[in-house]
């Protein structure tokens, strides 16, 4: 009789501590998954920021090239060649067309970046 009483008491205590153990285990798993989600979100935002930064650098480089004035080279020969190409395009008045096409390429690139960023909103659904 006394053994059954102690066995029942031990069963109640073990059940109580098992519930507490499972509760702590569940909370720790929740914290782990919040950390995993935060890390994934950071990586996604980092990649989007790199994409936007590359787009801005490319766009500013394109706009800087609109005002390109060929000069003397720095010893590698490409500056002189670009000067000859630019002077040839000036004679044919093709430089304006080239700049317009270059601007069009960047506008299409801008719409592509906006489309990619806009599609990220519903990626988790």
Please provide the ordered H/E string of secondary-structure elements.
HHH
Tell me what portion of residues adopts beta-strand conformation: under 5%
Helical percentage: over 70%
> Main sheet, how many strands, which sense, barrel?
none
DSSP strand count:
0
Average pLDDT figure:
80
N→C terminal distance: 59 Å
Shape: rod-shaped
Which structural class best describes the helix and strand composition?
mainly alpha
> Uncertain runs with pLDDT below 50, 5 residues or more?
none
Radius of gyration computed on alpha carbons? 33 Å
Quaternary structure classification: single chain
Q: Helical stretch count?
A: 3
Tell me about this structure.
The chain is mostly helical. It is 84% helix and 0% strand. It contains three helices and no strands. The chain has helices at residues 2-66, 78-92, 95-119. Helix 1 (2-66) runs antiparallel to helix 3 (95-119). The model has no long low-confidence stretch (mean pLDDT 80).
Give the structure's gist in a few sentences.
The chain is mainly α.
């Amino acid at each position: 009789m006394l053994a059954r009483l102690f066995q029942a008491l031990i069963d109640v205590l073990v059940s109580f501590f098992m519930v507490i153990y499972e509760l702590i285990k569940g909370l720790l798993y929740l914290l782990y998954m919040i950390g995993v989600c935060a890390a994934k979100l950071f990586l996604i935002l980092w990649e989007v920021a790199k994409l936007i930064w590359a787009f801005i650098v490319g766009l500013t480089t394109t706009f800087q090239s609109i005002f390109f004035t060929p000069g003397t080279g720095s010893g590698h020969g490409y500056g002189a060649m670009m000067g000859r190409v630019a002077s040839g395009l000036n004679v044919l008045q093709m430089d304006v067309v080239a700049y317009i096409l270059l601007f069009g390429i960047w506008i299409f690139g801008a719409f592509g970046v906006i489309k990619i960023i806009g599609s990220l909103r519903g990626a988790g659904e």
